[in-house]
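Lecture notes, unit on protein representations.

Consider one protein chain, 331 amino acids long.
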Amino acid sequence: MVAERCGDSGEDGAEREGRIERSGAVDGESGDPQFRGSKAGGDECQSDSEWEAIVTMPDGEQHEMPFQQRRIKNPKLRRGIFLIPAAFTSANLLCGYYAIVASLAGAPDDFNHAAKAIGLAILFDSLDGRVARMTGTNTEFGVQFDSLADVVSFGVAPAILAYAWGIRSVSGMSADALHQLGLFAWVCCLFFLICCAWRLARFNVKGMAPGGSKYFVGMPTPAAAGMIAAVVHALHHAGPLQDWRWSVVWLLMAAALGGLMVSTIRYYSFKDLPWSRKQPAFLILFLIIIGALIWAFSEVVLVTFAGTYAVAGVLLHLVRFIRHRMVSRTA
């Protein structure tokens, strides 16, 4: 459609100016000069070719004007961005592997180093998914790679750490009793590992709890592994367990953590917190204080956080269960 000449048009200059300014307000926002409205006042007229350049649009372009998202044109840079989440996942896997090797070494300091490596694996695991979402590099390969790394860092590594720290230094038992304790430890730690793999597979299939991303179904595998690592780190000055009674309690705790992972108890995920928004000053100050406490009193603070998170999920589940029973009785 070609615009009529200025002299033949039925609209005056003011009406034409308003029409073209409205067109520029819509089309000019795209940033493309060819769609920006031109201001045509009543003082001077545009030629036919100029009017045609302004309002003429081929039929093939009239119906669709896609606004594509900003993309990275450099393929090398784009591939590098996709490698950033994989680098964090690889760091997670490296920490898990180091924790296994340190646990097999068996010295008191090695157990503490293994616990710290599991803690670093938790940090890297929390960063890889967040970085992938921020950079828009979520892929199915990354999801599967992350799950396999989690099996090693939060399944195999804490299971071996719990086994070695729980029975390697036990004394005051007969050879047959020590053998029985070793079998019991083997079963409990294997149960922990199987539950970890089960929990990760269920999460890949079903995802979060219904109703959003606020709760996990079952205790998260990093939290269960962190509980084992926190206890070992808190008691590293005393060394590995030597009393068989405490070893039994320790192994039962590992099995209980495995049961919490495959349970349907809901645990808070912290994913609904608006970390990307501007936060108040007191929250930033609170996080700084928490970081300082972890740095100065890591043994007490970490085991307190891990134990509180594990127990809070169970207590809240009991509260919801009792409330549901009371409501059903009144109904």
